[in-house]
Amino acid sequence: MPRECDCAGGNCKPTADITRRQFVAFVGAGAATVSMKPDQPEAEQFAAAPADLATWKADLESAGKPRTYSSDRNTDARLHLGGIGTGNIEIGVDGQLTTWQLFNTLRDGEVPFYFAARCGGVFRLLQTKGGPDWPGVQRITMRGEYPFAYLNYEDPDLPVQIELESFTPFAPLETDLSSIPTAMFVFRVHNPTAATQRVALAAFMQNPVGYEAAGQPSGNRHEYYGGNVNRVRSEGRAAVLHMGARIGKAPTLDRDIRICTNLDLGALNYPFNDRPERLTLARLDAIAAAGSDPATTLIWMEDAPADLPAERLRDAASAVRNGATLVLSGSDAPLLRAYGYASGGRDLDTAEVRPPIRFDDFESGYDGWTVEGAAFGTEPARGTLPGQQRVSGFGGKGLVNSFRQGDETTGRMISRPFTIERRYIRFLIGGGASAQTQIRLVLGDRIVRSASGANDERLLPASWDVAEFVGREARLHIVDEATGPWGHINVDNIEFADTPGDIDTLKALEELLPARFGQIKTGAVNPITGKRPVEYTALTLTDGSTMMRLSGGPAAIVKPMGKGKVVLYQGGLLGQSHLGLVRQRQRAYQLLCSLVDARYSAPAGLHPGSPGAGELELAALRSGSTVLPGFTDWQAVSNALSATGGFKTSAGSPTPPTPEGETINGAIASTVVLQPGQTVEIPFALTWRYPNSYTRQGVPLGNHYARQYPSVQAVTRAVVTQFNKLRQTSETFRKTFYDSTLPYWLLDCVTANAAIIRHIGIVFRPGNGDVHGWEGSNGCCQPTCTHVWGYEQTLASFFPDLERIMRRLDFMHQQREDGGVNNRMEVPSPPRPTGEQPFADGHASCILKAYREARNTTDESFFRVYWPHIKRAVEYLIGRDAATSGGKPDGTLEDDQWNTYDQPLHGVTTFISGYYLAALRAGEEWAKRVGDTETARRFRQIFELGQQKLVDLCWDGEYFRQHLPGYEKLPGEVGPGCMADQLIGQWWAHQLGLGYLLPEDKVRSAIKSVFRYNWMTDLTGWRHMPRAFAGDRDKGLMIVTWPKGGRPPHVMLYSDEVWTGIEYQVAAHLIYEGMVQEGLAIVKGARDRYDGVPRPPLMRNPWNEIECGGHYARAMSSWSLITAAAGFEYDGPAHALRFQPRITPNRFKTFFCGPAGWGSLSQEIAGGQQSNVITLAHGSFKVARLTLAAPATAKTALIRLDNEPIAARVTIADGAMTLTLASPITLRVGQSLTVTIG
Question: What is the mean pLDDT of residues 883-912?
Answer without folding.
Answer: 97
